[in-house]
Design brief:
The chain is mainly β and 123 residues long. The chain has one domain (3-116): Jelly Rolls (Sandwich). 0% of the residues lie in helices and 51% in strands. The protein is built from no helices and nine strands. The strands form two sheets. A five-stranded antiparallel β-sheet has the order 1-2-9-4-7, with no helix packed on it. A four-stranded antiparallel β-sheet has the order 3-8-5-6, with no helix packed on it. A hairpin with a 6-residue loop joins strand 1 (3-6) and strand 2.
Length: 123
Amino acid sequence: MPFEIINAVRAKSTIRVVGGVANTHINLSSLSAQTGETVTAAAIAQVSTSTNGIFRIYRGNSGAGTLILELPSAAINLVLYEYDITFANNATANVFVEHTGTAGTLVMQLAKTATYTPALEGM
């Protein structure tokens, strides 16, 4: 399934997934915005979908991982961070997205925990 990752240093990563029935595997390491940023964990902070099927979001490398969210065939917009909520189950694991519909779009923001080289100093 085609996908795009938009990363920002010291900020959230945005993932956009489009298309029909397919699976998307997103490595935690691909959320780094630059060479000196090492992402060690990521929590789901916002999810928007539109589909004629179901989007399932797992933590791990496949659908055998931990199911975090199951989003039905309706327009969904969960802005979790506004309520200081994130889905962080197995936050150090990769993200796996499964889509059962023939068409759809998922936009997901991940709040990252990372280390930086050089470290931020003087604040």
